[in-house]
Specification:
Elements (H helix, E strand, L loop, with lengths): L6 H17 L2 H8 L9 H9 L17 H14 L5 H15 L2 H13 L4 E4 L2 H7 L19 E6 L2 E12 L6 E8 L6 E8 L5 E6 L8 E13 L7 H35 L3 E2 L2 E2 L4 H28 L6 H22 L11 H15 L2 H12 L10
Parallel strand pairs: 1-4
Antiparallel strand pairs: 2-3, 3-7, 4-5, 5-7, 6-7, 8-9
Length: 394
């Protein structure tokens, strides 16, 4: 494994960091959170126009840049540093790969070029508590079902004019503002029960979307209600969506791990800077051995998480799943870095208005959606076959 960045990868990181430094500082982030969409409407076109970020990992034939998950993960390390509120995760990491993997050629040609150009956003509508299960992050998804309309799932039925959906999905990332929804729905009744994916226009009749109050305001979520909503089946009825969801889950975990590493690295930088400025007993608190030890522990955790995230990005390009374990380590490192940042900032660090809390909430929010950490590790051990049963030699 060669850990050196190519000139193209280094340029992506440098250009993106420059753009986010000028367009996505702490003040801009907090202002964006108060908008109806929950993100700066001007930032997304800038990311698309200058960097082609929405289409970074999409094929060139659909207007993308043609890069891999590795480049997308490196880019998201920079968006994680700034906690940039954007539809990147929902649109480009969760939804676009599924459309590319399972959609018909007409569906790909109709949606992917607009996603790559940044003119269309998308969201994967899977009920939040079941998202990690559907993506096979915390266990095999062979038993996953989107069913139970009244129980919080979504049902699909055939009608004279196509498919109709009814039910509800909560905690849908960017579900309130996405131009198109990719909805997981149960169909086939009891005898032929299965989960399929359906495309729903953001302005479809019978679709109700309400933004929810969330722990991590930088990741806007919505409750999506469908009342006899017209929908288009993604692919065909013979499409097996569960393997595609699992592949998307590993790639998403890889990107999320890199994003969390970027956030952890940034909060550590800010804490070290503050420790060198704050005076106590006539000297900076960063000069005290106890503070040095705590910061050193955070540094080791962040560097270990970065190594795991980079390996997962490298492995993703070679069909080797390693995203779940990297995500577990990165989330743990971010939570540790943010917690120490809050502590070492003293009284000001404990106020909700301090930026350290945004990073802590990001770690906690991601763990609620895609974890918890111990189950991510358990799934990684299961996938690697560490706990296979068999006779033990004595």
């Amino acid at each position: 494994m060669d850990t050196r960045l190519t000139a193209e990868q280094d340029e992506i990181r440098r250009t993106l960091r420059e753009l986010l430094r000028t367009r996505c500082g702490p003040t801009e982030v907090r202002a964006a959170l108060d908008t109806p969409a929950g993100h700066d409407p001007g930032l997304w076109p800038a990311l698309a126009g200058r960097l082609g970020l929405p289409g970074l990992a999409l094929p060139e034939r659909y207007g993308g840049v043609g890069c891999t998950v590795t480049e997308l993960a490196l880019a998201c390390e920079e968006t994680g540093r700034a906690l940039a509120p954007s539809p990147l995760l929902a649109t480009c990491v969760l939804t676009a790969p599924l459309i590319h993997a399972l959609g018909t050629e007409a569906q790909r040609a109709g949606l992917l070029p607009r996603i790559a150009a940044g003119t269309r956003t998308a969201a994967l509508a899977v009920s939040g508590p079941a998202l990690a299960t559907a993506l096979a992050l915390t266990g095999a998804n062979d038993g996953y079902s989107a069913g139970g309309g009244r129980a919080g799932g979504v049902q699909a039925r055939r009608a004279a004019d196509g498919w109709r959906l009814y039910g509800e999905a909560g905690q849908v990332l960017d579900g309130h503002s996405a131009g198109v929804l990719l909805v997981a729905a149960h169909t086939g009744g009891f005898a032929r029960s299965r989960t399929l994916l359906f495309l729903v226009a953001g302005d479809a009749p019978g679709l109700l979307r309400v933004r929810q109050t969330t722990l991590d305001a930088t990741r806007p979520q919505a409750r999506v209600q469908l009342r006899d909503v017209p929908a288009e089946l993604l692919g065909s009825q013979e499409t097996d969506v569960l393997p595609a969801l699992a592949r998307t889950g590993d790639a998403a975990a890889t990107v999320l791990a890199a994003e969390a590493v970027g956030a952890a690295g940034r909060v550590l930088e800010r804490t070290v800077e503050y420790a060198g400025q704050r005076m106590q007993f006539g000297r900076p608190i960063g000069s005290f051995q106890a503070v040095k030890h705590r910061l050193a522990d955070v540094y080791v955790a962040v560097q270990a998480a970065r190594s795991a995230a980079y390996y997962a990005a490298w492995a993703a390009g070679r069909g080797k799943p390693a995203g779940g374990l990297a995500l577990a380590q990165a989330l743990e490192a971010l939570r540790h870095a943010a917690a120490e940042g809050i502590q070492l900032h003293g009284g000001i660090g404990f106020t909700w208005e301090h930026d350290a809390h945004l990073y802590f909430k990001r770690a906690a929010g991601d763990e609620l959606l895609f974890g918890p950490v111990h189950r991510l590790r358990d799934r990684a051990a299961e996938t690697a076959g560490l706990f296979t049963t068999g006779e033990v030699a004595v």
